[in-house]
Amino acid sequence: MSETSLSKFPVVKLSGKALADPRALGDLFASLRNEPAVIVHGGGIEVDALYKALSLKVTKKNGLRVSPASEMPVISAALSGQCNKKVQSIAIKAGLNAIGLLCSDGGMLTVTQADPELGMVGVPHQGKADFLLSLLSNGITPVICSLAFDSQGQMYNINADDAASELACLLKSPLYYISDVSGVLSKDGALITDINSDLADRLIADGTISGGMTVKIKSALSASERSGQAVYIGSVSDPNLDVAIASRRRLGTAVSF
């Protein structure tokens, strides 16, 4: 399959906060009934809520969740159980033939361990596109949660932004990061409509971009450089969300390396 035909499938990454708006997600999914897309989701809010219910401490390092092996069943329950099935159910209700998956299913991504101090946090790598393309070509919408098995059957927690970036590079696809903010914002709250690597470095250095947005911007820049496709960061409540993704138009902040 040619690069041109691959790039017709957008990758849409939904943050945990975006999952809190089922109406907007339903509208988005309805607009994709004739426009196949890959859906990737996080679920930090749900993981945090389950941790709190179980009296577990949430620890983060450089914006990434520390994931001890002993706590992976909890993380898996929130991400592949609660969040993945929630997104899949909304997609099905909107008329999509949706299937819930892990990042490693069908060999689409592989995973290696990141910093051992983070526990079972994995770094995703491009695998094979065949399985994913087979689903998309047959009208099946992949709903992918940010967990993956390595070759030894060990489960890893993957940053969902990085997983979406690798899948966009694998398919040479446009990538949309959807959260509850309109894009990258300046210190006074104004939308920054375009951002490149030089500007991103300056905004990270002066604290305008911090925490989870730092990880998101780095993933977005990596995807832009390696896929050669458009990358956008936008809001689930943007009135143009469904039209923008279905027609591959710009949304929120455009990121280019």
- How far apart are the first and last residues' alpha carbons, in Å? 26 Å
Order of helices and strands: HEHEHEEHEEEHEEEHEEHHEHE
Oligomer: single chain
Strand content: 15-25%
- How much helicity do the residues have? 25-40%
Query: How many distinct beta strands?
Result: 14
Give the biggest beta sheet.
8 strands, mixed
- Whole-number mean pLDDT: 92
Shape assignment:
globular
Q: Helical element count?
A: 9
Structural class: alpha/beta
The stretches of 5 or more residues where confidence is low (pLDDT under 50) are: 1-6
Radius of gyration, taken over Cα atoms and rounded to an integer in Å = 17 Å
Largest sheet, order of strands side by side? 5-8-2-1-11-13-14-12
